[in-house]
Structure formats: structure tokens, C-alpha cells
């Protein structure tokens, strides 16, 4: 995953604390990455200093607001195939 405004890309792998070659069920990498990577759940403090100074940052984010009920669409027991996928707009 590239990082914004960085020519280094994702960062560097520091170590491989768990490795399938050493008997682990999966490889688990420890990485050093930029903070400007992944989803932007910390907006508006992410891009406006005045909001960041007011405490709108990822440290104060209530993770409860990122969770909710899910209502799957489609026939019960069916697989969501590419032909069934459609882009939905959000009235958020």
C-alpha cells in the first residue's frame, strides 16, 4: 500500500516474528510505516490543524461510531458473485 507523498512506498519490514518456516501457522511481519497510510477515519483533524488542535484526531475517535448492524442483500445461501455486486451510494 503506497503512502501519500512518499517515494519509499509502504515502508520497511523490521522483522518476521512468526514464520511458517519456523512452525507458525502464518507469517506475521513487523513493519515500520508512515502514519499517512490506510483509511482516513480521523477527518477533519487529518487535514485541518484547527480541528486537530481541538482534538479531532484518531486518538479521540470513538470506535463505536464505526460499528453498526449489517443487513446482507441477496438470496440466502448464495454467493456474491461479480455480476451481483453493484456500487451503492452512501447518504452519510
From TrEMBL:
One GO BP annotation of this record: L-tryptophan catabolic process to kynurenine
InterPro entries in alphabetical order: KFase/CYL, KFase_sf
UniProt KW keywords: Extracellular matrix, Secreted
Keyword ATP-binding attached: no
Any Pfam family hit: Cyclase
Family statement drawn from the similarity comment of this UniProt entry: Belongs to the Cyclase 1 superfamily.
Origin species: Artemisia annua (Sweet wormwood)
Gene3D superfamilies attached to this UniProt entry: Putative cyclase (3.50.30.50)
Locations listed in the record: Secreted, Extracellular space, Extracellular matrix
Protein name: Cyclase family protein
PANTHER family referenced in this protein's UniProt entry, alphabetically: CYCLASE-LIKE PROTEIN 2
Domain of life, source organism: Eukaryota
A GO molecular-function annotation: arylformamidase activity
